[in-house]
Specification:
Elements: H1 2-11, E1 15-21, E2 25-31, E3 37-43, E4 47-49, E5 64-67, E6 70-73, H2 93-105, E7 112-119, H3 121-124, H4 133-144, E8 149-150, E9 158-166, H5 167-176, H6 185-188, E10 194-199, E11 204-209, H7 211-226, H8 228-231, H9 237-259, H10 265-292
Parallel strand pairs: 1-7, 7-9
Antiparallel strand pairs: 1-2, 2-3, 4-6, 5-6, 5-8, 10-11
Helix pairs in contact: 7-9, 9-10
């Protein structure tokens, strides 16, 4: 009995599913029950049918869906397929039906899903470079809607959450992660800036990955923040001296990581970050005790 309950519990555990919902195909990636990443691709072909959703035997063909009384088919050879190459595709019923179709074909219908979907750069960002929050919200609402009925099946998709990401960044993770969800050696050992070129069905997205630059920038910002207790007279010269010396050492390791000038620079920087925080708090406490006794 306990084994049966364990199996049922595992089956109901939320599954993380990513859908690169492009104009040409929906490329699905998900964690299976063993924690392995699985992938499968489905053509973005969907049509409206007027003669029901079953074959001549009266059984579901496994490719038919119904939304608010309208029947859709995801047969690859459909002659009257809906044109999906348009600006409204991310928030369309057709996109949602194709997502449900992909979930159905890989056996995830009825399971709790935490979904990640994508938008091309031209839609994810506005012309001013800011994120298109309005479209992201509408896309989230579209994929969160579970009113797509799989004809012949009693259950519907159970979408717990939806997150929207930029397609080119998702393409980098597709390359960087192995089947176990860990970082591939090629990704961990990258020493140069990377250009990600994501060639889609109707768009080509290009982005640059420069992780070390961000670390260097954030280190400089953090050091500046650690000096604030002295600036606002919350601490004295003892803390200032410690903050400057520790900050200089942290900046040194950030530069080493940026230049990749030493072996195992990443793990050494991480280890020092732990020492850095601990030592900084000790200096703050010691300085505060010293001020109280002067």
């Amino acid at each position: 009995m306990s084994q049966v309950n364990t199996a049922k519990k595992a089956a109901l555990m939320p599954r993380f599913v990513a859908d690169d919902n492009g104009y040409a195909s929906h490329k699905l990636a998900w964690y299976d029950a063993e924690g392995m990443i699985r992938t499968q691709k489905f053509d973005s072909v969907v049509s409206v049918v007027a003669n029901g959703s079953t074959d001549t035997s009266g059984k579901s063909d496994g490719l038919s869906y119904k939304v608010e009384g309208v029947t859709y088919s995801c047969k690859r050879n459909a002659r009257d397929a809906i044109e999906v190459r348009n600006k409204d595709y991310p928030v369309s019923v057709a996109n949602r039906v194709l997502f449900t179709h992909a979930l159905s074909k890989v056996g995830l219908i009825g399971m709790p899903i935490r979904a990640a979907v994508t938008l091309p750069f031209r839609d994810y960002f506005n012309s001013n470079g800011m994120m298109n929050d309005q479209l992201k919200i509408k896309t989230t609402e579209n994929f969160s809607n579970t009113n797509v009925e799989v004809i012949g099946v009693d259950v519907r998709p159970e979408i717990l959450s939806v997150n929207v990401y930029a397609e080119a960044l998702s393409a980098w993770y597709d390359w960087a992660l192995d089947d176990n969800g860990g970082m591939r050696d090629e990704a961990v050992n990258v020493t140069e800036d990377m250009a990600v070129i994501d060639i889609g069905g109707s768009t080509t997205d290009i982005c640059s990955m420069r992780i070390e630059v961000h670390i260097l920038l954030y280190t400089c910002m953090m050091i500046a923040v650690t000096l604030l207790p002295f600036v606002i007279h919350m601490s004295g010269l003892l803390y200032l001296a410690c903050a400057v010396l520790l900050g200089a050492r942290f900046l040194f390791w950030a530069v080493v990581l940026y230049r990749n000038s030493r072996p195992h620079a990443a793990i050494k920087t991480f280890r020092f970050s732990i020492i850095y925080l601990f030592a900084l708090f000790i200096a703050l406490l010691a300085d505060h005790y010293l001020l109280l006794n002067i």
